[in-house]
UniProtKB/TrEMBL annotation:
This is Tc1-like transposase DDE domain-containing protein. The lineage of its organism: Eukaryota, Metazoa, Ecdysozoa, Arthropoda, Chelicerata. It comes from the Eukaryota. Residues 12-62 form the Tc1-like transposase DDE domain. GO terms for molecular function: nucleic acid binding.
């Protein structure tokens, strides 16, 4: 994510230039959070994958083949609660603040 301060924009080296350019063109539409360069994975998708795996493992019987696995994964994906997504998005400022406070070290997230 692009890190912004009142005086400058810092670009992390791991973001493709086209993404950075797009964000710069749309700065009025987004509030970009500071993003620590050495942070643990704060991607909300990791939590979503964990929830999906938990739900998949709770199903019985186990998937007999890849086709059934695919169908079950899609069913879980399409039935995830929008509230979960909203909570994950709302938690991002707290997550980033915790990582910044820990100077990129471990947090409860």
């Amino acid at each position: 994510m692009v890190m912004k301060s009142s005086t400058r924009t810092t670009r992390p080296c791991h973001k493709p230039r086209i993404v950075l350019e797009w964000f710069e063109e749309h700065t009025d539409e987004f509030h970009l959070m500071p993003w620590p360069p050495n942070s643990p994975d704060l991607n909300p998708m990791e939590h979503i994958c964990d929830v999906m795996e938990w739900q998949l493992r709770a199903q019985t019987p186990p998937c007999p083949n890849i086709s059934t696995l695919r169908d079950r994964c899609l069913d879980i994906w399409y039935n995830l609660s929008p509230v979960m997504y909203q909570k994950l998005v709302a938690s991002m400022p707290r997550r980033v603040a915790a990582v910044l406070k820990a100077k990129g070290g471990a947090t409860r997230y």
